[in-house]
């Protein structure tokens, strides 16, 4: 079989591959029709030149393991099956999503999101990350491109667990590597710390929320060397300097959520989110949205980060 030419093949006995819809560094993604009349699927297949790379194999297999562990959590795509082909390629059969990623949404006219829209979209992702962190899993690549807005049913999914790490395990092949998307990588990851924990995801998600509100990330440099220099050390920018119309409490939130020292950051993703929701409460109340999860808590101070 020619690499990347799976069209017409049937996987798991019922999914006929119809068309290729995406390509990554180590895999292809196909749309597959359900021959039994059920939901169609997305089929992710390892590339031929990746099967000889132990790190690539480990990452994709780890993604399958994480999806299995998080099965049923609100923002995790369903995994229908995982298997190795006779010639050593890993195949993941996944829920097919209809919509667009958050990066594409934000790229349209350089738009920002209203706080009420964020409050309506993000709770499933926060819940899924909370579940992952309790299981000792950190995502390590949270960014708008890995958040997918679905149309039917409407919601937000968390994608691409290829960089995920189990905090109780170490991957020797990744020692010293900085993984993720530069604008969203936590300071401790830039510094090459091996003992990463959930607070790295807290930082990355806070950058996503900052980007959604401000129209830009806290730090934006083309040079990776410059990013390495500023992210762990530079003063944190004030969110309201880009959006003075937003509640002042958001600057207090950002100071904690984006802290260079992770010990000064929110201790968990739920505490970070609760503080964000409380900070934007005045704006959301004016929008008329109904709170579905009760009253949000007060914004924590730097001495109350959700421990």
Can you give a write-up of this model?
It is a single chain. The chain has 307 residues and is α+β, with helices and mostly antiparallel strands. The protein folds into 2 domains: 10-95, Phosphorylase Kinase, domain 1, CATH 3.30.200.20; 99-287, Transferase(Phosphotransferase), domain 1 (Orthogonal Bundle). It is built from 9 helices and 11 strands. It has helices at 54-69, 102-107, 115-121, 123-134, 187-190, 198-214, 224-230, 249-257, 269-287, and strands at 10-11, 15-23, 27-34, 41-46, 79-84, 90-95, 99-101, 137-138, 147-151, 154-158, 165-166. The chain has a 6-stranded antiparallel β-sheet, covered by helices on one side. A 3-stranded antiparallel β-sheet has the order 7-9-10. A two-stranded antiparallel ribbon has the order 8-11. Helix 8 (249-257) runs antiparallel to helix 9. It is globular.
Total strands: 11
User: H/E element string?
Assistant: EEEEHEEEHHHEEEEHHHHH
Uncertain segments: 293-303
Which strand order do you get reading across the main beta sheet? 1-2-3-4-6-5
Radius of gyration, in angstroms, nearest whole number:
20 Å
The biggest beta sheet reads: 6 strands, antiparallel
CATH topology assignment of the largest domain? Transferase(Phosphotransferase), domain 1
Average per-residue pLDDT, rounded, comes to 89
Q: Strands, helices and their partners?
A:
Blueprint: E1 10-11, E2 15-23, E3 27-34, E4 41-46, H1 54-69, E5 79-84, E6 90-95, E7 99-101, H2 102-107, H3 115-121, H4 123-134, E8 137-138, E9 147-151, E10 154-158, E11 165-166, H5 187-190, H6 198-214, H7 224-230, H8 249-257, H9 269-287
Antiparallel strand pairs: 1-2, 2-3, 3-4, 4-6, 5-6, 7-9, 8-11, 9-10
Helix pairs in contact: 8-9
């Amino acid at each position: 079989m020619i690499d990347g030419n799976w069209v017409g093949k049937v996987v798991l006995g019922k999914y006929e591959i119809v068309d290729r819809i995406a390509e990554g560094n180590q895999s292809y993604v196909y749309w597959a029709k359900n021959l039994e009349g059920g939901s169609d699927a997305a089929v992710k297949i390892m590339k031929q030149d990746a099967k000889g790379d132990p790190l690539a194999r480990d990452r994709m297999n780890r993604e399958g393991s994480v999806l299995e562990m998080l099965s049923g959590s609100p923002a995790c795509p369903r995994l229908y099956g995982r298997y190795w082909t006779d010639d050593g390629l890993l195949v993941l059969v996944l829920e097919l999503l209809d919509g667009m990623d958050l990066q594409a949404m934000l790229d349209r006219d350089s738009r920002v999101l209203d706080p009420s829209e964020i409050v309506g979209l993000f709770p499933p992702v926060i819940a899924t990350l909370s579940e992952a962190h309790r299981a000792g899993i950190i995502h390590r690549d949270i960014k708008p491109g890995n958040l997918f807005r679905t149309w039917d049913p409407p919601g937000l999914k968390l994608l691409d667990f290829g960089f995920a790490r189990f905090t109780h395990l170490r991957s020797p092949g990744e020692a010293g590597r900085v993984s993720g998307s530069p604008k969203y990588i936590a300071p401790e990851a830039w510094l090459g710390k091996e003992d990463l924990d959930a607070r790295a995801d807290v930082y990355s998600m806070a950058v996503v929320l900052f980007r959604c509100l401000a129209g830009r990330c806290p730090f934006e440099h083309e040079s990776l060397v410059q990013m390495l220099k500023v992210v762990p050390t530079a003063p944190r920018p004030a969110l309201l300097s880009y959006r003075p119309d937003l509640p002042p409490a958001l600057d207090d939130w950002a100071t904690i959520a984006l802290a260079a020292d992770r010990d000064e950051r929110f201790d968990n993703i739920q505490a970070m989110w609760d503080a964000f929701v409380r900070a934007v409460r005045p704006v959301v109340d004016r929008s008329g949205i109904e709170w579905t999860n009760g009253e949000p808590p007060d914004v924590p101070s730097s001495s109350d980060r959700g421990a």
